[in-house]
Structure formats: C-alpha cells, structure tokens
Write a structure and sequence with these properties.
This protein has about 180 residues and is mainly α. The protein has a domain of about 110 residues. It is built from seven helices and no strands. It is flat. The two termini are about 40 Å apart. The model has no long low-confidence stretch (mean pLDDT about 80). This is Glycosyltransferase RgtA/B/C/D-like domain-containing protein.
Amino acid sequence: MGFGIIIGLMILLCFYYLNGVLDDFISSVNSLKSVTSGNLPKDPSLPFLYIAALLIIIDQIIKSYIQGNSPIIFGILAGLFVPIIMLIFGRFPTYYSWMVYIPLSVVVCSSMEIMKFRLKNQISILILISLLLTCMVGWPLQIASAVNYWNDRDYERIENLVVSKICIKTGWSLLRLRCLL
C-alpha cells in the first residue's frame, strides 16, 4: 500500500510539473497548513463505525482468528493513519472523511461475513447496535447539514478558476492548464 501511494504521488507531481503548475500546487498546499478551521472530520457517525471495527477485532482475538494481514487491521490502520498523514502534510477537512469512512465500512462489512455474524453472540449484537447507530446518527445529520448550508454552496469561484486555467478555443477541451496561444 505504501509503495503504491509513493508511486501515485510521484506520478501526480510529475504531471503537475510537466503542465507547469507544480509551484501553484505546492503553494496551495502550504497555504492550507495555516488554516485551522475544518481540519478534522465532523461526522458524528464515524466513532460508532470505529467501535464496530474494534468489536470485530475483539471477536477475532477471542476466537484466535486475528492475523496481521486481516482486512479489519487494514481498515483500522487506514482509519488512523490517513488523517494523521494528511494533517502532517496539509489538512484533513470534513470532505475528505470518505478516505476513512469507505475503507472502514468495507472491511467492517466483509469482516462481519467472515465472523459468521449471529444474533446469539453478544459481540455480534454490539456490532449491530454500533452499525445501526452509525446509520441513525450520521445520515440524518448529514442531510440536515446539506439542507442548512444549501444556499452557501456557491460554485462561482470554482467556475472562475476553471475559466482562468482552461482555454477552450475550439468548443471542446479535455484538459488545458495553460493556454499556449
């Protein structure tokens, strides 16, 4: 996983360099380090998902099933280290919480299948309660937030940025960062 991240980062930086925007990218990342608001995800359902993952690990330890390359270990480690690494190199705003949420959700669900989920098991019941709380707390609050901030979503600044960076002379363009004409 680490090797893939390094290769991907190198390809991205080469792409930016070849298109002449590497300095812009670096300055934008460095400027974000000074922004303190919005640094951590505010999704209230994420702790319940972590609890479900930890309960699965406890169940696997009790059954002597846990292994170092277990998907649930990957999910927990990704859930912990992705935000930490992003905070070190920039910031980890709420809209990046999918980087934790999706891998953790996938491994929790796949691990539940592996553990032969049964409602007679107390840990299984606690996992189910954690997942229900994840859904019952997170989804309504995300919908309420979207409705509350609906009018604050102004895409004019993004449209202006796109117009200033992309040159469309012929009516179509896949990607043109600098106008050469």
